[in-house]
Amino acid sequence: MLGNTALIGIIRRFIENSPKLAISFRDYMELCLYHPEHGYYMNNKDKIGRNGDFYTSSAIGGLFGEVLANYVASQAEELGTEQELTLVEWGGGTGQLAQQLLDELKVSAMTVYKRMAYISVEASPHHRAVQADRLAEHAERVQWMNEQEWLIAAPRDNVIVFSNELLDAFPVHRVQIVKGQLYEIYVEWDDREGGFRDKLFLLAAGPVLDYINSQGVEMQDGQLLEVNLEATAWIHRIGHSIGRGQLVTIDYGDRSEELYAPYRMNGTLMTYRKHVAEDNPYTHPGEQDITSHVNFSCLIKEGAAVGLKQEQFITQKQFLVENGLLQKLQDTASPDPFSAAARRNRAVRQLLLSDQMSELFKVLIQKKGELP
């Protein structure tokens, strides 16, 4: 079997020690992505860009961070020129987006930059080290925390917490409807084939069933769906940590009626490895990204329960346009297609026209508390 052999052995031991001789898909996905030594996100391998497994918006020409800086500056103005601002990025990975954002604020909004603290909440020691190197120019503004360090001083005021492609990689439960019955997908080891495979168990009463019943959508026989309880728990923690401020969630996904529509019979779970997208999470454990679409209906509802009021829910394309992306286009008479201006203009077009970077991605802005 292909994949990280050490991680495969660890997962097999979990399975062998389980009373069901199987573990939930949620636990399998968590081990594949977040095992402290062998998890996909915890190792030193490049994941983003040409030498990695996928691209993010921040990897396209540096413009995404610049536009996000425009948004931050506009929100800072609403606080007043004397108010300090704390900007918090959750799961910043390589720090590429943070660098773009801070570089732009330093150039175009120095008064905001000078009264701002930037906190990176990052679990991976490797990514923390990469971020520290990349953000050296902004060392006086940046600090690192783990989640508990952030939460211990809550609630906090004058904060903007944001994430970019974070929640899609939270481990999910998988459920299938078979002849009117709900089954949860577990993972077992197949000795004959030498690999992992699905094993179905009747879904018991509990949080997963409650989540499904709360969606208010009718699903088809045979349909697969994902249940992201981690996202629900996360937004509760973030909501409680904010006294006055906002949460900006940037990710691909949609409302529940779209995610659980009849044409999505196989759910939304995907894997990415060397820029090849597949739907088999068992082929390269520990060596491929595993993601599922974010249920923004759930984030809106659960956020409201902890005081986070929906301000905007729009496509990434609309967010970029509203915050000045088109102003980044440059006039150029140069015939050189590789000139800086030409490359920048191509990046603008790519952010606006690419299906993966424009319509599938959404931006949810939720605010809490009143301005002083």
What do these coordinates show?
The chain has 372 residues and is an alpha/beta fold. The chain contains 13 helices and 16 strands. The strands form three sheets. Strands 2, 3, 4, 5, 10, 14, 15 and 16 form an eight-stranded mixed beta sheet that branches. A hairpin with a 2-residue loop joins β6 and β7 (181-190). α9 packs parallel to α11 (296-305). The longest helix has 17 residues, at 63-79. The N and C termini lie far apart (59 Å). The mean pLDDT is 88.
Summarize the structure.
By secondary structure, the protein is an alpha/beta fold.
Question: Any low-confidence stretches, pLDDT <50, length ≥5?
Answer: none
Estimate percent helicity.
Answer: 25-40%
The average pLDDT score comes to 88
Structural class: alpha/beta
Shape: globular
Q: Number of DSSP strands?
A: 16
Biggest sheet, open or closed, and with what strands and sense? 8 strands, mixed
Q: Strand percentage, roughly?
A: 25-35%
Order of helices and strands: HEHHEHHEHEHEEEEHEHEHEEEEHEHHE
Distance from N terminus to C terminus (CA atoms, Å) equals 59 Å
Radius of gyration: 21 Å
Q: Count helical runs.
A: 13
